[in-house]
From TrEMBL:
It is found in: Cell inner membrane. Residues 7-257 form the ABC transporter domain. It comes from Collimonas arenae. It is a peripheral membrane protein. This is Oligopeptide transport ATP-binding protein OppD. Gene3D superfamilies: P-loop containing nucleotide triphosphate hydrolases (3.40.50.300). GO terms for molecular function: ATP binding; ATP hydrolysis activity. GO terms for cellular component: plasma membrane. PROSITE patterns: ABC_TRANSPORTER_1, ABC_TRANSPORTER_2. CDD domains: ABC_NikE_OppD_transporters (cd03257). It holds the Pfam family oligo_HPY. SUPFAM superfamilies: P-loop containing nucleoside triphosphate hydrolases.
């Protein structure tokens, strides 16, 4: 019997009302995560990957809103829940780790106060138990002398240390789902590797599902089970990490991978995706990538639908063949 999905996002469509017009920040996005599964959500800046996470968390207010679709957590639709109901879910059943740790930490409260409040807001435990859980969480993310650090304020930590505290807070209640918005960007490589290991371990042991939002394909390659690639608000390719990163079929995915420094010969200029990302206020008709794609034809002026090709989902009329990709490498 198949395990029910922890999270199902079905045809999620959002928009922001601006003076210049409506912006479709997230458009027809669909994916699902099973218990313990890790998904990488990748794309250029402005592709909509962070907005997808914020809308799942219910952190976007007017002028942004969801206009269509479902967000199902353990089969329960989060769309339309009251603010009070979402507050009970956030930090307990779903948690988010932000790129800037000060979006999580209160600068005028001690770390122990903030962590213990995060525990006791959702669990009926004593202050002593909450304190011990907080100490263990700090040690888990590599913070030395956790008892001493619990007595400190956020301004007494470096940027990397603050981020580790924010990650520890997200882990406290062992939520069903954690959304990570590039949380290791400010950390050195050694600590980043430790955090990635701990996140994988948490998912395997507790069954927590994880969305890792990033532009760093190397992190996704070593962390995730599946990957979804976003371009101007839409998922253009998704599948297992091995399928997508080793044999990309969408020209945009291929361009992202080819532009990584490790894929270029020493001394040669970096490969680039031609052109610029279009404005969300003025997207080209049909496939939004067609103005930058060397494979585009007249057919691409019609909007492609996400369809299954070779055990992956793809939004493209002209998927790249293996022989074309090998010649381009």
């Amino acid at each position: 019997m198949d395990t029910p999905a922890t999270l199902v996002v079905n045809n999620l469509q959002t928009q922001f009302a601006t003076r210049a017009g409506l912006v479709k920040a997230v458009d027809q996005v669909s994916f699902s995560l099973k218990r313990g599964e890790i998904m990488g959500l990748v794309g250029e800046s402005g592709s909509g990957k962070s907005m997808t996470g914020y809308f799942i968390m219910g952190l976007i207010d007017a002028p942004g809103k969801i206009v269509a679709g479902e967000i199902l957590l353990q089969g329960n639709n989060l769309r339309g829940l009251s603010a009070e109901a979402m507050r009970k879910i956030r930090g307990n059943r779903i948690a988010m780790i932000f790129q800037d740790p000060m979006m999580t930490l209160n600068p005028v409260l001690r770390i122990d106060t903030q962590m213990m409040e995060a525990v006791r807001a959702h669990q009926n435990v004593s202050r002593m138990v909450a304190h011990e859980m907080s100490r263990e969480a700090l040690a888990r993310v590599g913070i030395a002398s956790p008892d001493e650090r619990l007595q400190a304020y956020p301004h007494q930590f470096s940027g990397g240390m603050r981020q580790r505290v924010a990650i520890a807070i997200a882990l406290l209640n062992k939520p069903d789902l954690i959304i990570c918005d590039e949380p290791t960007t400010a950390l050195d490589v050694t600590i980043q590797g430790q955090i990635l290991y701990e996140m994988q371990k948490l998912c395997r042991e507790s069954g927590t599902a994880l969305i890792w939002i990033t532009h760093d394909l190397s992190v996704v390659a070593g962390l995730a089970d599946t990957v979804s690639v976003m371009y101007v608000g839409r998922i253009v390719e998704s599948g297992t990490v091995q399928q997508v990163l080793e044999r990309p079929r969408h020209p945009y995915t291929h361009g992202l991978i080819s532009s990584a420094p490790s894929r270029n010969p020493r001394g040669q200029p970096l490969q680039q995706i031609p052109g610029m990302t279009p404005s969300l206020l003025n997207l080209p008709e049909g496939c939004a990538f067609r103005t930058r794609c060397v494979h585009a034809t007249a057919e691409c002026q019609q909007t492609p639908q996400l369809r299954e090709i070779e055990q992956r989902m793809l939004r493209c009329y002209h998927p790249m063949r293996a022989s074309v990709m090998e010649a381009a490498q």
